[in-house]
Amino acid sequence: MTTDRDLARWRLRSQLLAAPVADAETVVRTLLGVQAENPSQSAWAVATRTASPSREDLDAALAEGRVIRTHVLRPTWHYVHADDLRWLLQVTAPRVIPVAVQQLRPLVERMTRLTDVVTSMLATTPDRTRSEVASGLAERDESLSSFELMLFLAHLELHGIVCGGVPRDGEHTYALLDDRVPAAAPRDRDEALAELAARYLSSHGPATERDLSYWATLTLTDARRGIAGAAGRLDSFEHDGRTFWHAPGESPASVAPSGGAPDAHLLQVLDEMYRGYQDSRWVIDADGLVGRGRETAIGMALVDAQFVAAMRRRIGTREVAFELRPYRALRADEVAALEAEATAYGRYLDLDARVELRAG
Q1: Spatial distance between the Cα atoms of 313 and 324, rounded to a whole number of angstroms
Q2: Cα dihedral angle (59, 272, 75, 171), rounded to 10 degrees?
Q3: Cβ(82)–Cβ(25) under 8 Å?
């Protein structure tokens, strides 16, 4: 019988946390999209899924345009592979754009002028930071508030006009999409929906149609169309009154715990292991230890694919401290596994690392 714990362990592997790959580009291509609202935290989300976590790995992929950080899938940033960006925008942006449009109504009469100014600037000098775009607009008497500019640039990203450029000293920049991403013929919508369903459910599975609908801002009808179109590339089973879809040839038995040291992970709540689902998100809390209300922690500690503590990361000049507030008593081997993960995280940041256990 499949349990929530089985599903959570399975996801560790499908999401590459228990089966790391060679490099950041492969992570992003495999997962199709990695939420990237916070650059520092999302960089670890990618790196921890590689065999040898390195900051230079993702930096190079972004600089060379193999991976793009832009608004797509939902009204927030994601890392996506350049080969996937255009068709993902084609199939998901129509439902995401209205979210931004509602907040841009005061700028409606200026939208054409603003777009012309920004595209002209980026055509002349690409890879501009947001503050540089703001200065360029002000010089042309088209000033925007910080909030308005953030929404407007997201609007241009969702319309496939601009996208993330070459980062500068770790800061996000903007460039014209046509300068960063090779042109590609539009995909048939049913073909695109099938590709999206197959790749999301393979890389995030087992997951439900409602998880897919949430993740890509699709109607439930379109999520079902995508799954139907990808039927030959997916398997499914029933659990807890729902159908869960996944890559063929896998089963809960193949992801049972090994009996060695427990698998531990220190992740932000924006990580795909949490944010990649809505309908079945809480398989990582099979015992119901975590309140289902508003999120109070910015990070999570997982052991054997289960949520065991809230986590907060503090970075100093010489060390990174991981403050953990357990939801239950932790065994010595679980603490040791979390300390080993903290050490790996610290090595990635070129800092010493320590774990602090605090009362919940």
Answers
A1: 9
A2: -20
A3: no
Mean pLDDT, the chain, whole residue set: 94
b/e code 240-258 from CB counts within 10 Å (16+ = b): eeeebbbbeebebeebeee
Give residue 255's pLDDT: 61
- What is the C-alpha to C-alpha distance for residues 215 and 236, in angstroms, rounded to an integer? 19
Integer angstrom CA distances of residue 118 from 107, 156, 172, 193: 15, 9, 16, 32
What residues are paired with 68 via a beta bridge?
A: 80
Q: Which two tokens stand for residue 124?
A: 């002349």
The closest of 270, 300, 243 to 74, measured between CA atoms, is 270
The continuous run of DSSP H or E covering 314 comes out as: strand 306-315
End-to-end CA distance of the chain: 33
Candidates 2, 64, 31, 85; CA nearest to 276 is: 31
Indicate the residue type of 161: I
The whole-angstrom separation of Cα 277 and Cα 333 is: 29
pLDDT at 293 (0 to 100): 73
Query: What residue spans of 236-328 are helical by DSSP H?
Result: 272-275
Q: In this structure, are residues 243 and 231 in contact, taking their beta carbons and an 8 Å threshold?
A: no
Angular region, 60: left φ>0, alpha ψ -120 to 50, beta rest: alpha
Cα separation, 80 vs 30, in Å, equals: 10
- What is the torsional sign of CA 217, 221, 226, 232? positive
293: which DSSP letter? S
- SS3 state of residue 35: strand
Can you tell me the distance from the alpha carbon of 4 to that of 351, in angstroms, rounded to the nearest whole number?
Answer: 36
Residue-level pLDDT at 75: 93
Residue 278's pLDDT band, with cuts at 50, 70 and 90, is very high
Q: Is the overall model pTM greater than 0.90, yes or no? A: yes
Residue with tokens 């900051």: 55
pLDDT at 111 over 90: yes
CA distances from 305 to 87, 156, 324 (A): 32, 38, 16
For 33, the token pair is: 């999209």
Q: Tokens representing 170?
A: 């770790």
80 and 157 Cβ atoms separated by less than 8 Å: no
